[in-house]
Amino acid sequence: MAEAGPVAAGPTPDLIDLKADIEQTGVAEVLDRLDRELVGLAPVKQRIREIAALLVVERARASLGLATEHPTLHMSFTGNPGTGKTTVALRMAEILHKLGYSRRGHLVSVTRDDLVGQYIGHTAPKTKDVIKKAMGGVLFIDEAYYLYRPENERDYGQESIEILLQVMENNRDDLVVILAGYADRMARFFESNPGFRSRITHHIDFPDYGDAELMVIADKMLEQQNFRFDDAARAAFAEYIPLRRGQPHFANARSIRNALDRMRLRLAHRIFSAAPLVSRDDLMTIREADVRASRVYSGGLTGSVELNSGPVA
Questions:
Q1: Three-state SS sequence of the chain
Q2: pLDDT tens, 169-193?
Q3: What is the pTM of this model?
């Protein structure tokens, strides 16, 4: 019996519809959702679209038998708190999964405390456990510069750094690491740890929001919770935003969210104290008094300490 010859390969398509690919994989929907979720941040959104386009093109090259390799996707997100870094990381994890660049598409968000132990022999197991949980997805390390504390000779952060660097190099096809934090501190961190900079391809800076953008963010937050400003309250909050920006520990959208939470508390106390009967409009509408009761108007936040970068509004 004669041996079977090689099976002829099917015809290779000459044309690939890249836009159809991004639609069929669901990536276009993720990008659209990112536009809806986050106000402004045009440079950030453009960079994410560029990365998505790169991944789609690499898929097309592979399907046509062209030389390709798994792109290095480790990233650095720099910017002040409340500028959308975690949200963008979540959407990036989805994009990677939908395009076949990660197995699971999940995000594991950690800080130094999740990675570094307090005594000898504790750090390596902690770091390796976090990495194990993140494998097949994205590991997001917020305030990553706290891993490196050169002023403390007995600090164990360097052990975690060495493990992370090894995994970022050897497992880059199964784990994407995103380091995040303030821009100036991240710059010093990279200078002290050049191994990280050499492994990170995408450095994305998140700008602060403008006053008008913060007002849009406030409206979106209130709408999601079935609240709204009346006209006088809206005018008062337009005054509040630049005043709050000038106070310590301003955290962009996070500070706006915390301020709205305080205003909702004032609304609740006001209508509860006024009368036993309330209307739908009463339960939904933030009035001027709810806004102007904030100490921001008198400069009362100067020197205050905030929890998780949020204001005591």
A1: CCCCCCCCCCCCCCCCCHHHHHHHCCHHHHHHHHHHHCCCCHHHHHHHHHHHHHHHHHHHHHHCCCCCCCCCCCEEEEECCCCCHHHHHHHHHHHHHHCCCCCCCCEEEECHHHHCCCCCCCHHHHHHHHHHHHCCCEEEEECHHHHCCCCCCCCCHHHHHHHHHHHHHHCCCCCEEEEEECHHHHHHHHHHCHHHHHHCCEEEEECCCCHHHHHHHHHHHHHHCCCEECHHHHHHHHHHHHHHHCCCCCCHHHHHHHHHHHHHHHHHHHHHHHCCCCCHHHHHEECHHHHHCCHHHHCCCCCCCCHHHCCCC
A2: 999 999 999 999 999 999 999 999 8
A3: 0.85
